[in-house]
Write a structure and sequence with these properties.
Layout: E1 11-14, E2 21-26, H1 29-41, E3 46-51, E4 57-62, H2 76-88
Antiparallel strand pairs: 1-2, 2-4, 3-4
């Protein structure tokens, strides 16, 4: 099989008002890991439904466990404080070899 492009690696969240479950289909590595950990910890609330050869997974979970959070943009003041905090606590994305 051909390798998928980043554009083709979708995340799809499906649910309707008539059912208590939601379906999440994703290729996103971070979300796959979070779903795997959640399903291991709470198997009665979340389960792996299908895994694809190319890396995609499909989970079914209780809709009440799903949350969509919208975050407003950071103000310049907040961004500056976060930058200062990161510098003081050595949160540096670059290594000494860069």
């Amino acid at each position: 099989m051909a390798k998928l492009t980043k554009y083709e690696k979708e995340t799809i969240v499906l649910f309707n008002e008539g059912e208590d479950t939601a379906s999440i289909y994703t290729y996103n590595a971070g979300l796959r890991k979070r779903l795997a950990n959640f399903s291991k910890k709470y198997p009665d609330l979340c389960r792996l439904e299908k895994s694809c050869e190319q890396g995609g997974v499909s989970y079914v979970l209780e809709k009440s466990r799903l949350s969509i959070r919208l975050q407003p943009p950071m103000s310049e003041e907040r961004r500056q404080k976060a930058s200062e905090y990161a510098k003081q606590n050595r949160f540096n994305a670059k290594s000494d070899n860069d």
